[in-house]
Every structure is written in C-alpha cells, then in structure tokens.
Write a structure and sequence with these properties.
The chain is mainly alpha-helical. The chain has helices at 2-19, 23-31, 33-62, 105-131, 140-162, 169-176; strands spanning 66-72, 76-78, 82-84, 87-92. The strands form two sheets. The protein has a two-stranded antiparallel ribbon with strand order 1-4. Helix 1 (2-19) crosses helix 5, helix 3 packs antiparallel against helix 4 (105-131) and helix 4 (105-131) crosses helix 6. The longest helix is centred in the N-terminal third of the chain and has 30 residues, at 33-62. The chain is elongated, with a radius of gyration of 19 Å. The relative contact order is 0.14.
C-alpha cells in the first residue's frame, strides 16, 4: 500500500509540474485539483483494476489452451501472495507430462503481458486525441483523458515494472518467456 501511495504521489507531482508551465494552465489546475486528489485513486481502484484484470481475462479467453475459472477485479487477499489489487484464475488445458506444469509457456506470458498492451493502447489513444485537437486539452474531457487515459495507464505500467515482486506480471512474463 505504501509503494502504491508513493507512486501515486510521484504521478500527481509530475502531472502537476508538467501542466503548470503557463498561467492559464495553473489556474485550470487550481480549479480542478480535486480531480488529482480524489479522482485518480478512485479511478485506479475501480476502472483501473477492472481494465488491468479484464485484460488478463480477455487474453485467457482468447487463448484456446486456457479456461478462465475466476475473475476478481477488486482488492483481496490470496493465501500464497498476500494482498493483491485483483486477480484471475486460469486453468491450463495442456500439462507437460514430466513437470505437470502448463505446456503453453508462451500463452502464460501473453496473459501476463496483456495489461501492458491495454495500457499502451489507452495511453496512445489519449495522447492522439489530445495532441491532434480532437479533444480540447483545457476542457474537463481533456483533463479526464490526461489523468485517466495517460496518467492511470502510466501508473499501472510503471507500478508493475518498479515493484516486480514474485508472481507479479513482470515476474510471470520473465519466467514464461524464459528471460533471465
């Protein structure tokens, strides 16, 4: 929890500094600071977790070698891992006869990497909408796209890479893609 709060504080600070270059943007930040303080954590605990775990679930469903047996897009405790933000359960249909482990290691790696693909799509889409003028960056929709489309995606992506503990997505990707 402490690591999550530190990352969130860094995100809020960097987004505030980046947007505070001009006087008009500083005024916009002052008026919308509640979005930074309350909106981002609320988004991360609801839609953010749903998008992250939903990515794992969709990748599991799309892979014929796996069955999705559980979907919990909310914080909870797992016996072997402690507290997690969310989780899925996937059953591998093909087991290696010698190790009794899943024979489709690449499929497991793709399932673990699915949120990174989703984060990249959200980030690039928000960036394109804001940078091309399709959405006015100074509007409330622009602020929402900046915070939730770019900021939350960056947070999810960075948090997983910075704190790659055992059984985290990067750890599973490294093991399944056989990255030393």
């Amino acid at each position: 929890m402490k690591k999550m709060l530190v990352t969130l504080a860094v995100l809020m600070l960097t987004t505030s500094v980046a947007r505070a270059n001009e006087a008009a943007e500083r005024e916009s930040l002052r008026k919308n600071r509640l979005w930074y303080v309350a909106g981002m954590p609320l988004y991360l605990v609801t839609v953010g977790i749903l998008a992250h775990e939903g990515s794992h679930a969709l990748a599991t469903i799309l892979d014929d070698d796996f069955d999705l047996t559980g979907f919990r897009p909310y914080p909870h405790r797992l016996d072997d891992q402690g507290w997690v933000g969310g989780s899925i359960d996937a059953r591998c249909k093909t087991l290696d006869e010698q190790t009794f482990r899943c024979a489709d290691r690449t499929g497991l790696g793709v399932i673990a990497s699915a949120p990174y693909i989703t984060d990249t799509v959200f980030f690039v889409t928000a960036d394109l909408l804001l940078s091309t003028g399709a959405v006015n960056p100074d509007s409330k929709a622009g602020l929402a796209l900046y915070l939730f489309g770019m900021g939350a995606s960056w947070y999810d992506f960075a948090r997983n890479l910075i704190w790659a503990v055992e059984w985290s997505d990067p750890d599973q990707m490294a093991r399944n893609f056989e990255i030393p």
